[in-house]
Amino acid sequence: MPQLNPSPWFFIMLISWLAFSLVMQPKLLSFMSTNPPSNKATHITKTPSWNWPWT
């Protein structure tokens, strides 16, 4: 069964991970968000409970 031979598949997996980590990952990490999050105070609003007619 040729699919049990790991030698070509391991090399393909190794090359793809090296390509991802050395080429694509720095390009993806170079993007910065244009609007950094600001430190806003969280305002918690209390919503009134509903008056159910059948209770």
Automatic annotation (TrEMBL):
It is a single-pass membrane protein. GO terms for molecular function: proton transmembrane transporter activity. Keywords: ATP synthesis, CF(0), Hydrogen ion transport, Ion transport, Membrane, Mitochondrion, Transmembrane, Transmembrane helix, Transport. One of its GO terms (biological process) is proton motive force-driven ATP synthesis. The chain crosses the membrane at residues 6-24. One of its GO terms (cellular component) is proton-transporting ATP synthase complex. The keyword Transmembrane applies. It is found in: Mitochondrion membrane. InterPro entries: ATP8_metazoa, ATPase_protein_8. Residues 36-55 are annotated as: Disordered. The keyword Transferase does not apply. Belongs to the ATPase protein 8 family. This is ATP synthase complex subunit 8. It comes from Sakesphorus luctuosus. The gene is ATP8.
